[in-house]
Amino acid sequence: MQNTDRRTVDGFGDEWATFDQSDISACEMAAMFDNYFANFPWSTLSEKAEGFDAGCGSGRWAALVAPRVGKLHCIDASDQALDVARKNLARLDNCAFAHASVQNMPMADGSMDFGYSLGVLHHVPDTTAALEACARKLKPGAPFLLYLYYAFDNRPVWFRTIWRLSDLLRHVIYRLPKRALTPLTDAIAACVYWPLARLSRLLEKSGVDVDTIPLSYYRNLSFYSMRTDSRDRFGTGLEQRFTKAEIVALMENAGFEEIRFSEKAPFWVAVGRRPR
What we know:
This protein is of the alpha/beta class. The chain has 9 helices and 7 strands; from the N terminus they run ααβαβαββαβααααββ. The longest helix is centred in the C-terminal third of the chain and has 28 residues, at 178-205.
């Protein structure tokens, strides 16, 4: 497959097989969905709209998108992940599944009414080419929702320093054998994510602004979500990060306009449109 890293693809297949999202409550999933799709222009789509999920993983977002539209193409480079998505989306009859990279999505160019890719294109070798491939599938005026890891450009120096130290740890952990990877990332979730998240929740209840506390985003999320994201964060070798300005440049170069960002976590989520 073009524009994929095999080890990364296999790692995510194993992640979604391990964390198939079945243990997350509907309320928590809906809250996370709202954070990502807060700026998505649902009102501009018809009930018959046809779109795509580029890098669908377990199908967790597709489960909430598909009931709102006519047809949803769920694309993933991992056949293991697609098996999980098929199981999770079995109750829906308007999802089509394709084992393909973002670079080789099977829909016709210029045929889609919308698209989205959340937490995927920073894990491919060439993010620019992948975003251009997504843009080609869209009709004129169609919206596209994108989430890319941020480069902490809205955080202080001390925050970025902590991240750099954690990134050194990631470069060691992701190389571990599969049998050791999940127990270790679970331990990180228990010893780092959970204490900081729960401290943030306590401080917030006391009236403290907790936005600059690392991992405060998880303060109202379950331990299952923390385990999932710990595995995602430390179990992946290929990771790129982008500033808001860099994402604007990427999207504009791919042919998007009317680019808008969500100003709340997770950062950065942006929506743009193909020119009409």
